[in-house]
Amino acid sequence: MIRGLSSSLNPNVLYDTYQFHLTPQKAIQLFQRYDLVLDCTDHPTSRYLISDACILTGKPLVSASALKTEGQLIVLNNPPRPQGDTSGFGGPCYRCVFPKPPPADTVTSCGEGGILGPVVGVMGVLQALEATKVLTAKPPTHSSNGEEESVRPTLLMFSAYNTPEFRSVRLRSRRADCAACSSQATITPNSLTSGSLDYIAFCGATATINLLPPQQRVSATDFSRLPRNGSNVLIDVRDEVQYAICALRGSINVPWTGSAESWLEKAGANGLSFDDGREHYVMCRFGNDSQLAAKAALQQSDGAGITVVKDITGGFQSWRAEVDPSWPDY
After folding, report:
1. Active site includes 284?
2. Is it true that domain 2-204 has CATH number 1.10.3470?
3. Residue among 96, 203, 246, 284 flagged as catalytic
């Protein structure tokens, strides 16, 4: 650790530099010393670790990222509340917004993907502004009935070549089944300090899968050329938070639950019938969950009366690469 004063911008700023990588064993001890944490990293392994440690130490987190010509900003665990808090006022954590990490082969770091310098400056200034707002915020306000008013978290997305350049999406509060901040949390101080949590394995465990034969899959490009005249249905199986960020017009959101039976029940509750003679296309973020959902639909009907049930290969990642470069890369 090196302690000193910054003389270039503000001579009154005291900073500490730690000459080692942040690890689960050290995160809690370090974070307990500070009032606020800023995440400036560019990999899911560090983002999940930092967010988990902020929950366990009760620290708000300002998280910003930048890649190529785009950036994202979100304030998490604000206001901070302990695990299992049922007041409804605690801010969501990183796991609430992204319960599952992206497939390892889809993650691109700044070093690999490159980045436009001014984009870093934009996101850095916004992150500093949000940090200042959190540190200088007034005590929580109360409604007319005396209850504390909750803070509505938002995800700010920046794209240098889009018009407008900024988009802001309201997020939901904490997830009831979050592994880090809910009453069902499985992440504890002991699980971090003991080293039993392997973030590298967690973020690398989701590999690209191939469950369906080629005839039951379609490329994003081919799907974009299909007529949208009611003869086909697009089913988006991402969770509600991701669907709220961006969605194709006319799509139906039926989040994949991890269980074929549960998902089929939700599909029925949304008015979907896979034997209605229409073509059904299933899409997710990267093309994994959509295959599971499409397979469930096919197995339910055993092919009887179905015109088409297909997975869109590569999901919205392929949609962005092949069809619409302005699609948010969240």
Report:
1. yes
2. no
3. 284
